[in-house]
């Protein structure tokens, strides 16, 4: 058995029948909405994490510059 026959035998379209049936379409839409919200929350978390580190880098730079300016 080569790779093509193995992939062909292991791929069964009936396992993906929930994508095609109309009865489970609301659950599929609900799953898509949950996946979209999860992706949105992950992106939001990454954004806040990057902004948090940039804020502290900016505050550190501002404090060093203000110390240098105060010392003349």
From TrEMBL:
Sorted alphabetically, the keyword list is:
Membrane, Transmembrane, Transmembrane helix
Q: Which residues cross the membrane?
A: 28-57
Q: Which domain of life is it from?
A: Eukaryota
Q: By what name is this protein known?
A: Uncharacterized protein
Q: Which organism is it from?
A: Meloidogyne incognita (Southern root-knot nematode worm)
Provide the taxonomic classification.
Eukaryota, Metazoa, Ecdysozoa, Nematoda, Chromadorea
């Amino acid at each position: 058995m080569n790779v093509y026959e193995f992939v062909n035998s292991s791929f069964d379209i009936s396992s993906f029948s929930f994508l095609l049936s109309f009865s489970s379409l609301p659950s599929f839409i609900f799953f898509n909405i949950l996946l979209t919200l999860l992706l949105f929350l992950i992106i939001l978390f990454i954004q806040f994490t990057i902004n948090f580190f940039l804020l502290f880098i900016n505050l550190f730079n501002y404090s060093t510059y203000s110390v240098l300016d105060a010392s003349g």
